[in-house]
Amino acid sequence: LSILLILLVPAHTTRSPDCGGILTPSGLRYLAEVSKPHAESVLRKDLMASPAPDPSPTSPSSRSQIVSVKVDKFSLTLIPDTGMRLSIEVDLGFTSGPSTTKEMRLSILADLHVEMNPEGNLELVTSDCKPTLEEVQSTEEMDSKSSGSDVDKQINVEKICLEVSKLLLFPNERLMSLAAPFPITPNCQVQYLPLAAPMYSEQGIIISLQTTFQVAGTVIPLPVSPVPFSMPEPARSSPSHLILALSEHFYTSLFSALEQSGALNVSLLSSLTTATLAERITQQMGSLFQEDLPVVIQAVSRSSPRVVLEEDKAIVELFLTAQIGTRSSLFQSFLSVNVDVTARLHFSVVDTRMIISVAAVEDIELSLATSDVGPILAALLEELFLPTIREEVPAQINAVLRQGVFLPHIASFTYTDVNITIHKDYVLIPCNLQLEARTR
Q1: What is the DSSP code (8-state) at residue 121?
Q2: Could you tell me if 134 and 269 lie in one domain?
Q3: Quick one: which of 215, 292, 417, 427 could link to 261 by a disulfide (CB 3.0–4.6 Å)?
């Protein structure tokens, strides 16, 4: 058995975070704010539902009925090292006849935390719940014992506590949406998997995530992170609702997934033709082609891309092999060139997607990959092909990335007031949450 366990352990120990987020106390306050109308709607539906008919035929009009439900207070606060505390105060209006009204206050104090269930999804659970009910005012004296009994029949306290987490706008269906696969390209998807239950600090609720990529429906192996990533906590409280952090390894994995999916393979139409090329590269070119044809460059990755993050700077290094040739009915290559591109990256966020673009090419190196047509000077290669590669490679990569890469998020919420900062080894994204208008 011990040998079997040893064999099984590596499958789990290789999991390590490469990104994460901190939901701040400000974010909790916002979630409470937008959950208040939702909670009132749920409580109104539950508490004002028609009760079962009274089996006693005597004085049916004396039964207390809940005629109004108004949430006066709804707050969600952080308890470091433990979880969250939900505090709700609900004003209830009762009537037991045409001229008898009664107002009572239902107070609910519940402790909540997020666990990871056996399926690997995050789940909001209630660890403690204390409801209290007290009278506020009445239009006439009523028998407190009998009226209290009627109220108890109307309010199922145990049910309220059992489902108190549903009063928030991020019940478990939305938490499960965090781990849903999101498309990047038609055949490449990204998925963020929680590694453990969140941790609770004074700065907020810390969630660590591991990214996986699928190409054509199959999870692909990615480079191993050389440095374990941990969610950087801010030194002081942040006014933002949420702070996302994406590691350098995340971006390298993203470009590696795109490379394995074939999305970084590019086909470039040069401004040269075989005739103009023959004027510069010996007479051998003229003997290869009987007619003047446009020169085409087809570039594919020869090794995995690499992203490097420094303070206020992000660059991607692409290692390509370019086949230079012509295309009539079929592509015919006559020269192979290694192309190493170092380009600067720009990041922005729209809704819940990070838009990554190649902002500027900082360096390109060309070198002969084969000796198909004999030695060619590097300076001549650069003169002939560098302008096309410099312009077209970033343009085609940007076309692939134009739709953006979905960031970790839960359904019905988008990101606003985004401020992106690039640090050594990671990108920090403080932002605010915005509930989508169509959500009821």
Answers
A1: -
A2: no
A3: 215
